[in-house]
Amino acid sequence: MSIFLNKDNKVIVQGITGGEGTKHTALMLKAGTNVVGGVNARKAGTTVSHVDADGNNIELPVFASVEEAIKETGADTSIAFVPPKFSKDAIIEAIDAEIPLLVVITEGIPVQDSAYAWAYNVEKGAKTRIIGPNCPGIITPGEALVGITPNNITGKGPIGLVSKSGTLTYQMMYELRDLGFSTAIGIGGDPVIGTTHIDAIEAFEKDPETKLIVMIGEIGGDAEERAADYIKANVSKPVVGYVAGFTAPEGKTMGHAGAIVSGSSGTAQAKKEALEAAGVKVGKTPSETAALARELYEAL
């Protein structure tokens, strides 16, 4: 079992002919992902050469639009490797085509573009689940990867992971590689994102194969506090948390666009306290968090 993504998903790549699109299409295919084509209006009607997970040479068709790609291939998932200034249009195109899952990797998309796209999706009935932007995407180990997470960190297992940070996603997967993961999602750290901690935690709670949930947050905003309230009211499975930024100076913007701290709201300590009040075990470092997760899992 998994959430949002499995081996049966048919994936298209918006920006398949660009440098990042080319590189990561190859890596996704190597991970076993069922990539069925790509989108680039200027190169519609051509194909791109790749190698599938079994080492066979394949030609992937390039389509003029997401709508055409869905019609021709039955795709239900798209990943966008599109430069920031064109990303809003790419997201809108995917929403208009009503693709069920869209992963937006791009960093540096203007916040007003993300806000517009998010509102547009809601207005259209929220038929598209968006993961990102500015994120590593989603991986269900042993089945499919839609994103840039290294495929060889870990195998399948009982842990569900949702994280604001890409690099901390990879580290946590490595720390707990002996246990393995049902699905790992990097949701991104921008102020406006599609899928939230709560969305992922709700799905993990319903997934019978996920026995324990790890959530990684960071300073700034109130997403972790809201997740704590949700966990307290709705989640029966053990949850372990980590909040990046315990040593961050107050009032300074750190890294991700969303990570700004004012007063006590948004600090790592405030988030830790909110999570612990909801029964979540919180580690001070990624390694300590992994150790807590292992202890809790062994006690199940």
TrEMBL record:
CoA binds at residues 17-20, 43, 105-107. It comes from the Bacteria. GO terms for cellular component: cytosol; succinate-CoA ligase complex (ADP-forming). GO terms for biological process: tricarboxylic acid cycle. Residues 4-109 form the CoA-binding domain. Keywords: Ligase, Nucleotide-binding, Tricarboxylic acid cycle. GO terms for molecular function: nucleotide binding; succinate-CoA ligase (ADP-forming) activity; succinate-CoA ligase (GDP-forming) activity. Its EC number is 6.2.1.5. Pathway: Carbohydrate metabolism; tricarboxylic acid cycle; succinate from succinyl-CoA (ligase route): step 1/1. InterPro entries: Cit_synth/succinyl-CoA_lig_AS, Citrt_syn/SCS-alpha_CS, CoA-bd, CoA_lig_alpha, NAD(P)-bd_dom_sf, SUCC_ACL_C, Succinyl-CoA_synth-like. Transmembrane segments: none annotated. SUPFAM superfamilies: NAD(P)-binding Rossmann-fold domains, Succinyl-CoA synthetase domains. It catalyses: succinate + ATP + CoA = succinyl-CoA + ADP + phosphate; GTP + succinate + CoA = succinyl-CoA + GDP + phosphate. The active site is at 256 (tele-phosphohistidine intermediate). Heterotetramer of two alpha and two beta subunits. Belongs to the succinate/malate CoA ligase alpha subunit family. Succinyl-CoA synthetase functions in the citric acid cycle (TCA), coupling the hydrolysis of succinyl-CoA to the synthesis of either ATP or GTP and thus represents the only step of substrate-level phosphorylation in the TCA. The alpha subunit of the enzyme binds the substrates coenzyme A and phosphate, while succinate binding and nucleotide specificity is provided by the beta subunit. PANTHER family: SUCCINATE--COA LIGASE [ADP_GDP-FORMING] SUBUNIT ALPHA, MITOCHONDRIAL, SUCCINYL-COA LIGASE SUBUNIT ALPHA. This is Succinate--CoA ligase [ADP-forming] subunit alpha. It comes from Gordonia amicalis.
